[in-house]
Amino acid sequence: MSFIRVDPKSDFPLQNLPFGIFSTKENPRPRPGVAIGDFVLDLGQIRHLLTGPQLSSRTRVFEQSSLNAFLSLDPAAWSETRASLQRLLSASEGQLRDNASLRKWALVSRDIVTMHLPAEIGDYTDFYSSRDHATNVGTMFRGKDNALMPNWLHLPVGYHGRSSSIVVSGSPVHRPCGQTRPSDDAPPVFGPSRLLDFELEMGFLVGSGSERGQPIPIDHAQDHIFGMVLVNDWSARDIQRWEYIPLGPFLSKSFATTISPWVVPMEALKPFVLPNPTQDPKPLPYLQHSDPFTFDMPLSVAIKGEGMESPTVVCRTNFKHMYWTMKQQLAHHTVSGCNIRPGDLMASGTISGPEPESYGSLLELSWRGSKPLTLGGGHTRTFLRDGDEVILSGHCQGDGYRVGFGTCEGKILPARGS
Which of the following is catalytic: 48, 116, 133, 395? Predict the structure, then answer.
């Protein structure tokens, strides 16, 4: 228990302690903090209390404007930081609890903070690791017998995304423009996307990096994975359909990717680990690992359109449905010798489950626009409209507490440049 009261339904109990970058009107400098209940603990204000052997000489990482310096440390330093913070915030420890002056400066109400991207994201990779999602999309475009491409069961398929357009939750997203071909017997046209979609994903931030030319063995991959965030990798389906052959997504994905501001450390997620999915055929040796790295993590998506009084949940799924694990994604990413750097983001790809209500995109939920969703109050959707707010959320449920990610939100604004 913490000396700070935390509601059992809060995403941010003592068992979580996610890291983020925040600022306030009184102090507009972005700086590292940890969420605890309804507060943010300013790490720069209490860094002198972090006196363990891993951190005592390196606490200046908590005076930076991003988490990159902290991420670049090793798992021992991350673990020591977490243990020290849990001690300082516990009900039985008076070092912070009984120091009113320090509490005044170190504990900031979450209601008054502005959240920023948690890291300077140098590179971004998006995978395609949900078998249910890949099967659904493949069935729509190629038929049930050819739903999965021949490589899909042998490697974690992915593509390199655009890090410059990654934005933090709450940032608006303008409808993208591009070429589409509405009719197969007519030339392409230019204009705003008509089939704008969300993609419910999770992502992980890379901790310590690797050298170019040096693959990360899968048995050590976990040492390079710091923590996870919610990801909405917005997608313009009509632009994508016209442009993706032969090289894959380009303008249809590069206009925006939204992530949640709080990074939940992998150590906080360990109590919710599950056995890895059975993979058949068995992957090549460099992709094999026996330690469990799949997580019981319920996820949902809600839409609030203009004129709607409250959001309507359109998807409920779970991260446990993923076929390829994060360790496999990272090992495959680096097996060619590709180096990674602290703060790199790697996303899961759309997370869909086996049931229709667990599909993680409107493309699937409306089955390519043929089955409109009912949102209540006479509102329906096949794809997103201007003014729609999309809200992703997720948490792991413990005994009397939850380890959550907050929300990942974005509102669709009209296109510019059309």
Answer: 133
